[in-house]
């Protein structure tokens, strides 16, 4: 942890930042070596405007990422994966809020966020480090989830801050590792940051997960089981075997009978994670143990939507009013009500990596697409009914 803190402390920006990099290449069997060739462009999937799948464009001519801050690293992307946020961002969802957070040094160099690279997950090799990076070195095998206000990972290289990066679990290939960072960190943010769960607090706790068969759900089930909670998973019948395999104690098929009727027959819960939103929220809230510290957390919030529709000031106002009224309403019924948001975190990934290497969390990969098939991966995600994750293989492991 200390070396991580050293790694993120910043010195004078102008002294420490680096210009366009000398490119390091991985040569088979000989590890990393530096080539003197100066790379200025790289291949990547970009969008030049918001819209449907037709706006995704493959280009060989995307600007090579540059280390602008001393705590940044350039990672050669071996594998990435798709998440609902990629499909949403492609359509322009969240653009107002994300543009406000974008760093003009990395994006918006020409006054616009385009060309924008999507993709949040990366598993790959550190190629170059900012001058203040102590915790990582070129050649390290790492994984990370890059926040949505930065350039993404459907590319040959990506730049990330060291506090977003972690050493890849040794037991996983890059393809496997790329399926986990964004969804496990979202599950972590919801369950640990919002609900206060931990390894110590999970035993004896009854947790309900609505939407357990997708990316976040499969990660949440495993994290909770690794920490000894009792997990009730809500999914379609054809995900039953997957849920059993991941260790769920009780499984509810929401397609055969109303969720409400099925919840009535069960004991109440200490925590509910809602990955679905809509009517499931009001319905599920009745099944928490009141006045016992029970917490409901949803990942489906109107935060970005409100800012898109109303602008930042009015959007934030509406969001604040909505959240405050829900928190108060449920507080008076003895329930904590929370919204959960993905939070990038290398240190949390370090802990998740240990659970992975201990065999407690494993990748749930439904499909692997080559880099050329990013649009097909988007189509698959948009069609719904995910069972775990779809991965994008950027480097063919056989080559
Ligand atoms: N707030 C944040 O920062 C944040 C971060 C990550 C994700 N999210 C949101 O969280 C949600 C889940 O993300 P994800 O990555 O897990 O999505 P995903 O991989 O697409 O999975 C969604 C899963 O939910 C299942 N499902 C659909 N309707 C259901 C219902 N009524 N009851 C139970 N299960 C249902 C789907 O399978 P079937 O349709 O076959 O049942 C699918 O397995 C998305 O809305 C995403 O946008 C928010």
Can you tell me the CATH superfamily of the largest domain? Medium-chain alcohol dehydrogenases, catalytic domain
**End-to-end span in angstroms?**
36 Å
Radius of gyration: 21 Å
- Major sheet characteristics: 7 strands, mixed
The ligands found in this model are: NADP nicotinamide-adenine-dinucleotide phosphate
Oligomeric status of the shown chains?
Answer: single chain
CATH architecture descriptor name of the largest domain: Alpha-Beta Complex
Structural class, from helix and strand content? Answer: alpha/beta
- Residue runs with pLDDT of under 50 for 5 or more positions: 5-36
Instruction: Estimate percent helicity.
Output: 25-40%
Explain what you see.
This protein has 399 residues and is an alpha/beta fold. The protein has 2 domains: 2-180 and 363-393, Medium-chain alcohol dehydrogenases, catalytic domain (Quinone Oxidoreductase, Chain A, domain 1, Alpha-Beta Complex); 183-339, 3-Layer(aba) Sandwich (Rossmann fold). The chain is 31% helix and 25% strand. The chain contains 14 helices and 17 strands. It has helices spanning 2-8, 13-16, 84-90, 95-101, 174-177, 181-194, 215-226, 240-246, 259-264, 279-285, 303-310, 312-331, 346-357, 374-382; strands at 22-27, 31-38, 41-47, 56-63, 72-82, 121-129, 141-145, 157-161, 165-167, 206-210, 230-235, 250-253, 271-274, 295-298, 336-339, 365-370, 389-393. The strands form 4 sheets. Strands 5, 6, 7, 8, 9, 16 and 17 form a 7-stranded mixed β-sheet that branches. The chain has a 6-stranded parallel β-sheet with strand order 12-11-10-13-14-15, sandwiched between helices. Strand 16 (365-370), helix 14 and strand 17 form a beta-alpha-beta unit. The longest helix has 20 residues, at 312-331. The relative contact order is 0.15. The protein binds NADP nicotinamide-adenine-dinucleotide phosphate (NAP). Residues 83-84, 183, 186, 210-211, 213-217, 234-236, 254, 275-276, 299-301, 340-342, 384-386 line the site of NADP nicotinamide-adenine-dinucleotide phosphate.
